[in-house]
Q: What sequence folds into this?
């Protein structure tokens, strides 16, 4: 006890109790660089964006909209490295198709063509590959796209994780207005297309061997149909984004920061299914950061919010759509959340991966 | 969700907050001891509902934050040994040691795994007899029994390739240290409900008596915390200093005897350095001689040079409740969750990370 007292005395003079000097941030790629949070953003901003600087990348959207004579195309790419390959509610195959068509849909584009590259690990059971390819085919039909090009590579055992899939997608832009973060306006309503967190928890439940009263299924689904319905109703959609890794909070923060605008959302109206809520409580996770694969946010004028919700809810995949907040005119790109007990706090982007807490 | 929603009910919250406002007549400083409590307070914006007379300071109850630098270095040294699989609870992985973190070690090729239960590490050892599986046994009295169980089980099954790096800490000695520190501002404690679920409350009653300080054993939901604050303020205003429990739906006076028995069978108390606070006698746990063969520190020759800590980070003052995180010159500038200078910025339970994540800058 003596030591403490003497340390306390010293502390009055200077800050002596301390933590280590910061070691330089890692010079290696960390898992957090792929977590969809701040470290992913840093990697984009410090390496990829400067290397390829152009207007399409600068829009910071899910896909690029490019003009070719006579038409506007949306063009995107994505990669899938999910483990396990087959999980409750889906597998890496339908995930790859849905994820790619959703990136196109978020540009207001009708998905048309996909290409897929398969990196297979030596020793992968062919039966697994068949399952994956069959569900890709089903998913492509459901989403109305044709897989028109492909590539297959095999790597030595131990150098892959069964199957990696890399995709590209092309679609035609059907939205009259530009749909991207820059179009978001103060006063816009923020809608979420459905309840959150099922995909992330479905994956985690298999990885961690967790069991729930009713199994949590991934929400993987194609989203063009509800988006198309919003556009066909003539709604003035300003921005769309699908909520993948990093969850709702990353999507909102990305848009807030790309547009340089504030948002407020209301915690108690954000739909989260009961089993997801329970799993998050047990694991010390926040559902607002958990991944989804069939959910998106919509920004559009306040006066059109009710109509948009009506349209969304007519689709099974969007039946629990809800309005969760409003874009403010604050200049600071901060997402404020009004908590369940009526307090306020900032909903920040995750810094790396969400880590389970000790106790 | 039953047993959760009712403790997050805005009406109940407002009712208790109003009762606190009616009771309070002058400034009081309270410490919530547990990191889980800090997390809820900041996550729900609960302080905004309190009258300005009440100051909450965030105690040292985050195991990640108080684990000394040297132990993190030992963990990394173990993890990078060939043939070792190093298992840990998730939020220890990002804690900076003097030369990187376990995450960085993983990126360099170390076999580092996140486990949810220490028994998973035992299973891993069983399934991989050719590898040495080391589990980072950290935490307060909440995790100690389960970690003791893992060692006990490994002993029972004769699993020779399992060992633990022990970094356990105990709450009551830290409370005594805080109360005896001359700079101590704390007038009442919200004691950690989950720790008390294991240990029972008698040791806290003793501290309350010895130091004349109100202690309220408190839960982790907004209603729990406000009720704990209300009970503590009511004691302070009426000049009482007793042990009370707000968390009687979970905590029993005698604690969890099974868990305690197991903990005492496997561990004994030892002196322990707390990061940011210093050496506190009898404030840690180490393996008893009967289980000493499971001690990773003796099984592997570890050559860890002692390291000195920098002067900029004020984690120690934050952990003792003498400073708020935003009073640190490095806070949110040179110290962020991506590049933490100190452990309280690492764990989501850490006061600095909670302030940063939930946007408390003043």
A:
């Amino acid at each position: 006890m003596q030591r403490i007292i003497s340390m306390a005395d010293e502390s009055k003079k200077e800050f002596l109790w301390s933590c280590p000097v910061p070691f330089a941030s890692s010079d290696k790629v960390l898992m957090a660089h792929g977590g969809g949070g701040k470290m992913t953003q840093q990697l984009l901003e410090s390496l990829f964006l400067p290397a390829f600087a152009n207007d399409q990348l600068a829009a910071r959207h899910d896909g690029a909209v490019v003009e070719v004579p006579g038409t506007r195309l949306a063009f995107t790419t994505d990669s899938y490295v999910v483990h396990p390959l087959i999980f409750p509610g889906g597998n890496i195959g339908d995930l790859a198709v849905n994820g790619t068509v959703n990136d196109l849909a978020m540009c207001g584009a009708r998905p048309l063509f996909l290409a897929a590259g398969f990196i297979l690990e030596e020793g992968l059971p062919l039966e697994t590959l068949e399952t994956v390819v069959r569900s890709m085919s089903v998913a492509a039909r459901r989403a109305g796209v044709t897989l028109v090009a492909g590539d297959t590579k095999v790597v030595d055992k131990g150098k892959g994780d069964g199957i990696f899939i890399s995709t590209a997608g092309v679609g035609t832009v059907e939205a009259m207005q530009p749909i991207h973060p820059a179009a978001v306006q103060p006063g816009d309503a923020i809608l979420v297309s459905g309840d959150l967190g099922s995909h992330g928890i479905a994956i985690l439940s298999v990885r961690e061997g967790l069991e729930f009263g009713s199994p949590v299924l991934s929400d993987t689904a194609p989203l063009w149909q509800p988006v198309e319905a919003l556009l066909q109703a003539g709604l003035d959609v300003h921005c769309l984004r699908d909520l993948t890794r990093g969850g709702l909070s990353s999507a909102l923060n990305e848009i807030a920061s790309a547009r340089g605008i504030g948002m407020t959302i209301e915690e108690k109206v954000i739909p989260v299914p009961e089993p997801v809520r329970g799993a998050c409580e047990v694991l010390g996770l926040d559902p607002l950061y958990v991944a989804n694969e069939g959910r998106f946010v919509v920004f559009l004028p306040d006066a059109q919010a009710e109509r948009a919700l009506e349209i969304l809810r007519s689709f099974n995949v969007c039946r629990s759509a809800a309005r969760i907040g409003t874009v403010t005119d604050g200049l600071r790109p901060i997402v404020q959340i009004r908590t369940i007990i009526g307090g306020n706090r900032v909903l920040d982007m995750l810094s790396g991966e969400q880590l389970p807490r000790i106790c | 969700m039953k047993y959760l929603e009712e403790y997050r009910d805005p009406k109940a919250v407002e009712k208790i907050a109003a009762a606190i406002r009616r009771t309070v007549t002058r400034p009081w400083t309270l410490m919530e001891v547990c990191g889980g409590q800090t997390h809820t307070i900041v996550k729900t914006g609960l302080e905004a509902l309190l009258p300005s007379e009440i100051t909450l300071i965030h105690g040292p109850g985050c195991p990640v934050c108080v684990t000394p630098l040297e132990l993190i270095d030992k963990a990394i040294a173990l993890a990078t040994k060939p043939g070792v699989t190093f298992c840990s609870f998730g939020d220890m992985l990002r804690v900076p040691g003097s030369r990187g973190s376990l995450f960085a070690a993983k990126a360099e090729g170390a076999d580092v795994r996140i486990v949810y239960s220490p028994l998973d590490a035992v299973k891993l050892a069983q399934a991989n007899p050719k590898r040495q599986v080391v589990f980072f046994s950290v935490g307060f009295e909440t995790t100690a029994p389960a970690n003791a169980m893992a060692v006990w089980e490994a002993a029972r099954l004769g699993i020779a390739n399992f060992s633990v790096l022990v970094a356990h800490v105990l709450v009551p000695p830290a409370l005594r240290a805080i109360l005896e520190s001359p700079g101590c501002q704390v007038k009442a404690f919200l004691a950690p409900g989950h720790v008390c679920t294991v240990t029972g409350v008698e040791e806290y009653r003793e501290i309350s008596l010895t130091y004349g300080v109100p202690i309220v054993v408190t839960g982790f939901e907004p209603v729990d915390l406000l009720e704990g604050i209300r009970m503590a303020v009511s004691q302070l205003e009426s000049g009482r200093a007793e042990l009370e429990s707000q968390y009687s739906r979970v905590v029993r006076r005698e604690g969890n005897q099974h868990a305690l028995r197991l903990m005492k069978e496997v561990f004994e108390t030892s002196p322990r350095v707390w990061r940011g606070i210093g050496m506190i006698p009898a404030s840690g746990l180490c393996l008893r001689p009967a289980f000493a063969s499971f001690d990773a520190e003796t099984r592997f020759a570890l050559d860890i040079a002692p390291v000195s800590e920098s002067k900029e980070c004020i984690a120690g003052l934050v952990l003792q409740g003498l400073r708020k995180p935003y009073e640190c010159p490095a806070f949110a500038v040179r110290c962020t969750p991506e590049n933490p200078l100190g452990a309280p910025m690492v764990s989501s339970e850490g006061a600095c990370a909670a302030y940063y994540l939930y946007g408390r800058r003043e």
Summary: Residues 68-168+256-298 of chain B form a domain with the Rossmann fold fold (CATH 3.40.50.11740).
